[in-house]
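thought: user wants a sequence for this fold. calling inverse folding tool.
action: design(structure=
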């Protein structure tokens, strides 16, 4: 049984490979990456797998039984990339495709959801066995700016009082490893989110508690937030996506309380306080 992991040198992919190595032999894992040399430290076989070369993908999937398709990170290009992978998986005889989608993809108002839902539709229509890992927000998406917020004296966003049930990236990686290495997940959909939800006001309060200094949360309009992110040097598409996602969070788009992830991984998801502590060390 060979398990292929796309994007295995990415932030999530590396964690997934590490978690898989705890469950299956390293020899059964294949890292599918654009630059195999960058995967040399993973301790598994690495194969060149470049979305921009669709004609080469099927050969790279030769012998792969289970494929974890970690969604691409090029917004606007993800759907054609994913469709190329799905077609290659069919040609290569892959038995089961696991896809990292977005929380509540079929009802989400987040701009990010469109390409994810279209990928899900394509996988269902492909005839391949599928599993959708509908990942919620990574807590690191917010805590990554904690040090900057401390320096600036305020945490900013446009999520209002929306409840955000995020989890650490490692939690999502563990859930993926459990499902991919396990059995009985055929044609299932998992809504994955953290056990506890918080508002950005509460996140700022936790940062304040940990550093002993008040860091307020300043709620902005979506346009104001996007403009500030662009002023920080973020590409416009990323800035607009983050601002749109905050607006989606204000409407409940990043909330889920079913606790499917902690059931899958067999323990509670990582608390917000722990992810913040790691971020501000």
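)
observation: tool returned 281 residues.
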């Amino acid at each position: 049984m060979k398990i292929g992991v796309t994007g295995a040198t990415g932030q999530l992919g590396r964690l997934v490979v590490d978690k898989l190595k705890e469950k299956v032999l390293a020899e059964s894992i294949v890292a599918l990456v654009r630059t195999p040399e960058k995967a040399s430290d993973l301790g598994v076989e690495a194969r060149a797998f470049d979305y921009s070369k669709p004609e080469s993908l099927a050969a790279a999937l030769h012998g792969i039984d289970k494929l974890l398709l970690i969604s691409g990170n090029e917004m606007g290009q993800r759907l054609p990339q994913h469709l190329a992978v799905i077609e290659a998986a069919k040609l290569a005889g892959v038995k089961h495709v696991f896809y990292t989608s977005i929380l509540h993809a079929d009802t989400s108002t987040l701009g990010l959801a469109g390409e994810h839902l279209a990928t899900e539709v394509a996988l269902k229509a492909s005839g391949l066995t599928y599993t959708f890992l509908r990942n919620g927000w990574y807590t690191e998406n917010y805590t990554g700016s904690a040090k900057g917020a401390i320096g600036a004296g305020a945490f900013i966003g446009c999520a209002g009082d929306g409840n955000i049930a995020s989890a650490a990236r490692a939690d999502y990686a563990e859930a993926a490893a459990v499902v991919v290495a396990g059995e009985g997940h055929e044609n299932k959909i998992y809504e994955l989110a953290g056990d506890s939800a918080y508002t950005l006001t509460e996140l700022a309060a936790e940062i304040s508690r940990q550093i002993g200094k008040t860091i307020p949360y300043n709620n902005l309009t979506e346009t104001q937030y996007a403009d500030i992110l662009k002023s920080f040097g973020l590409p416009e598409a990323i800035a607009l996506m983050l601002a749109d996602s905050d607006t989606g969070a204000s409407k409940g788009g990043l909330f889920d309380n079913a606790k499917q992830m902690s059931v899958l991984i067999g323990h509670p998801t990582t608390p917000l306080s722990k992810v913040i502590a790691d971020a501000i060390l």
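thought: summarizing for user.
answer: Here is the designed sequence. The chain has two domains: 3-135, 137-168+193-256+270-281.
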